Amino acid sequence: MSLIRMKSNYQNKIESKSIEPDIGNFTQPIKEIETKTKNPNHNLMIGEGVTINGNVKSDNEVIIQGTVEGDVECNSITIDNSGYLKGKIKTENMLVKGRAEGEISVNSLLEIKSKGDVSGKVFYGGIQIEEEGKLAGEINYNDSKNKQEEFKDWKTL
Fold first, then answer.
1. Region 67-73: what's the mean pLDDT?
2. If you compute the radius of gyration of the chain from its CA atoms, what whole number of angstroms results?
3. Alpha carbons 54 and 71: distance in angstroms, whole number
4. Any residues with CB less than 8 A from the CB of 126 and at least 6 apart, and which?
């Protein structure tokens, strides 16, 4: 019988807590989205139909299927067919199937697919453009040995 009482006393001590998530105020624009992890499985995807007006900073890949108007700094960017990115962009690699415009600095490879459209002031380490891919604006090879001054007095288109 003492075993039953102990079990009964244990059950009485269990407390249940309900935590309400803090979802914030959705009327304010997103100022900055930042990821701190360096896990390659943790990518940020901005889905089709989603619009972000603000800055995005990540140590990983950012995949854009919607619209981003603001600065983006990350390891890798993929802009899908429905994606649009406008702002100051700094990345190692960039794959464009949609549209990107602004101040773009790609340290390694800028890859523009057949329906891709890139315009603005562009610095690149390497470049691949498929037939019918578009590249317009001020285009500069980014020589890693000779660091250039980037984006002085340049305004987004």
1. 96
2. 23
3. 7
4. 108, 109, 110
